Amino acid sequence: MSSGDGSSYSSSKISKKPRYSRFTQQELPACKPILTPGLVITILISLAIIFIPIGLSSLSASQNVVEVVDRYDDVCVPLKPSNSVEQNDERIGFIQDVKTNKTCIRTFIVPKKMKHPIFVYYQLDNFYQNHRRYVKSRSDHQLWSPKDERNTKLCEPEAVNSDNKPIVPCGLIAWSLFNDTYSFSINNTPLTINKKGIAWTSDRTKKFGPNVYPKNFQTGGLIGGAKLNESIPLSEQEDLIVWMRTAALPSFRKLYGKIETDLEANEKITVVIQNNYNTYSFNGRKKLVISTATWIGGKNDFLGKMYITVGATSLFLAVIFLLLYVIKPRPLGDPTYLSWNRNPTFQY
Ligand SMILES: *[C@@H]1O[C@H](CO)[C@@H](O)[C@H](O)[C@H]1NC(C)=O
Asked: Residue 286 falls within a domain, yes or no?
């Protein structure tokens, strides 16, 4: 054994004993509540009293939302009976051909009176805007400042055009901008859609520059989606701003515009859709959604149901405990219940 191991520690003059403090000795004042039956029952009942009304009011708010969802990607392409693989090829051919007429007319009846503002959304299903390479394919510097036009290194493969000029806005997200359009009318009277103010104010004022104009955009080989008007700065291209706030889940809705008038029940709405966007190549679905909103937002029963479930469970447990407490009461702190008092053969 080599000299010094172990012995050098014991010969050390420095004491390892911690200095006394109430913290190191764990003598700080502490709250040690005793969960008496009365306390537990009170807590459970107060949970029920808080949760059930919140649940009921959010459920009723959600039920008051009027929502119309219309899937149109399947009906807005010419359908010829054939097997599904061929049919899909045919649809892709239809959507990629610039010469085909993509206009599609859909009608629906307003089920209940809808108060303005009425929100118009497009919904895409099976579209992974959260894919890693897609999410990263943008340049926030370039979006904000005209000086950073060349800052496109994250934007591959949509960074520069064939003449090596930077694409503004660069990247896959901007390139794949949604390009279906909708126009609404009631009895041949057009219904205006307000497309101002659909993006977040913070995005408009802090992320998308008022002096940045689209350049060389969508001029490459494969067209990904909508084109942008080169005379409008990015801060006013609200469809782009909405699209570039990427969705976290593969089914998502994005705001298309707002209808600023009330719609009466049983009114017949006609929508002329330009079915441009290619979701057929990846089995995506497209839906048009119009919806009113309340204080909880759009239609969503889940939150209310969850609150009611938690409240009802607490109430149920409170009742059970109360019954047990009344039918079979047990004195608190009775030492005869201790194991060593109950079972005299078990002793240390
Ligand atoms: C719309 O986007 C698709 C790709 O999804 C593209 O092929 C088509 O050319 C675009 N059409 C218009 C009118 O921008």
From this structure: yes
